[in-house]
Specification:
The chain is mainly α. 59% of the residues lie in helices and 5% in strands. The chain is built from 7 helices and 2 strands; from the N terminus they run αααββαααα. The N and C termini lie far apart (50 Å).
Length: 150
């Protein structure tokens, strides 16, 4: 596979990820994000459609994925995994316990799709992070989950 094909494949994957993340994206927004022409984005969207991705076009608004369409993340980079592990440690040491269970379950799902070598490094990173509570010996709360629900 030559370098241009590799760049295009990476861009197609990134476009799909962006479409899963945002409700509607314009070709202009995608072109700016990836540093390509609008015409290239048109070709990329056609390629995704040919590959069976249900991309819908909302006239005058942009592109979106059909409701319910999802693909699992293919893989995370080592830096992305480290960022998630760092935040996991902050959540675990936080005095608000309402999000600990859900966040831990989410991180476990993410760890399941990591490459074995990246997963090992993420575990090592997790063991090396030490978070000191801002106010030791204070009661925990469950406010964050309540605020999030509101």
């Amino acid at each position: 596979m030559n370098e241009n094909n590799t760049k295009r494949l990476s861009r197609l994957t990134a476009i799909l990820t962006q479409l899963q993340t945002k409700r509607i994206l314009t070709s202009t927004t995608l072109a700016k994000k990836f540093g390509v022409s609008i015409r290239t984005i048109y070709r990329d969207i056609k390629a995704l459609e040919k590959a069976g991705v249900p991309v819908l076009i909302k006239d005058g608004k942009g592109y979106l994925l059909m409701d319910g369409y999802r693909i699992s993340p293919v893989m995370f980079t080592e830096n992305e995994a480290n960022a998630l592990i760092t935040v996991e440690q902050l959540v675990l040491k936080n005095r608000d316990s309402s999000l600990i269970k859900e966040y831990t379950e989410a991180v476990n799902k993410i760890k399941a799709v990591l490459l074995y070598s990246t997963n090992e490094k993420a575990d090592l990173h997790s063991k090396r992070i030490a978070v000191s509570p801002a106010l030791p010996n204070t009661n925990t709360s469950n406010s964050l989950s309540l605020i999030q629900t509101a």
